[in-house]
TrEMBL record:
Protein name (Swiss-Prot/TrEMBL): Glycosyl transferase family 1 domain-containing protein
Alphabetical list of Gene3D superfamilies matching this protein: Glycogen Phosphorylase B
Length: 276
């Protein structure tokens, strides 16, 4: 079950296995085409099985049941706010989000959580002259534990996930699981998480294919999201009615549940292949 964007995956890895289990349609298309073009001496079977992610929001709800002091505010789609977390990653276009909010003091509040030193440096550089705007809260160095992270996702009405690249996209999927209106990159495989009635796609431009990513011969696997793309997508969210935003959030959760069921069924079918 490869992360097809990884530099380490080369011909010998794909020639050494009987099955390749693909988490995304983009991965399935690339791997299938590669075997067609470069041979399949082992008669390897390529399957699109999908995948799933842990659900921090459910963990937070369970924790709250046994800890009455742990309260969770309901999402507010009437007065929407925004949330973004990039952890230790440099691949989430966080700098572009910071630039967007610098350019748009009229936007609603956003909370940004980061453990990445490069993001802190970008934040310091972007706001060194103007100071942090009142509509942005930057939380740096706070390693949020499971229940607290789940609560943050549950309370956020709109979650911005503009990945540059993904092997699957767990943090996008966890945002869907929390029932948020999810914004993510309009590039593969991130855009597979969004439907017309479930989330907003952010305009993106492909980088040149990276020769260290073997399957990038079938198109770039990395995407650039700029501040303009972020701001335009935010404006689409703000142009919605509260009912529309609520509906998008519910539909994002439904997509998460549907994929969970599909993945479980696909794993049962795979197990049957090996047992019988």
């Amino acid at each position: 079950m490869p992360n097809v964007e990884m530099f380490e995956l080369k011909t010998k890895e794909y020639y050494a296995v009987d099955y390749v289990l693909c988490k995304t349609k983009d991965a399935y298309d690339r791997v299938t085409k590669w075997y067609e073009d470069f041979g399949n001496p082992r008669n390897t079977t390529v399957l699109f099985v999908e995948h799933t992610s842990s659900d921090p929001s459910t963990s937070a709800k369970s924790y709250a049941q046994s800890h009455p002091e742990f309260t969770i505010r309901p999402k507010n789609f009437d007065k929407t706010t925004f949330f973004h977390a990039n952890g230790h990653s440099a691949q989430k276009s966080t700098t572009s989000i910071l630039q967007c909010w610098k350019e748009r003091p009229d936007l609603p509040l956003i909370d940004i959580y980061s453990m990445h030193n490069g993001t802190r440096d970008a934040y310091d550089e972007i706001f060194k002259e103007t100071g942090t705007p009142s509509n942005l809260r930057f939380h740096f160095g706070h390693d949020v534990d499971g229940p607290d992270f789940g609560r943050l996702l549950l309370e956020a009405s709109t979650i911005i996930c503009p990945s540059k690249m993904e092997g699957f996209g767990h943090y996008i999927n966890q945002a869907r699981a929390a029932g948020a209106l999810v914004m993510t990159t309009n590039g593969s495989p991130m855009n597979e998480f969004i439907a017309p009635d479930a989330g907003i796609l952010i305009d993106a431009a492909p980088f040149e294919p990276n020769q260290d990513q073997m399957l990038s011969i079938y198109g770039s696997m990395e995407w650039y999201v700029d501040a303009t793309g972020i701001c335009n997508a935010v404006d689409k969210v703000l142009a919605m009615t509260p009912n529309e935003r609520t509906s998008h959030g519910k539909n994002c959760r439904r997509l998460y549940e549907r994929q969970f069921v599909n993945f479980e069924a696909n794993m049962r079918r795979l197990r049957a292949l090996f047992v019988y």
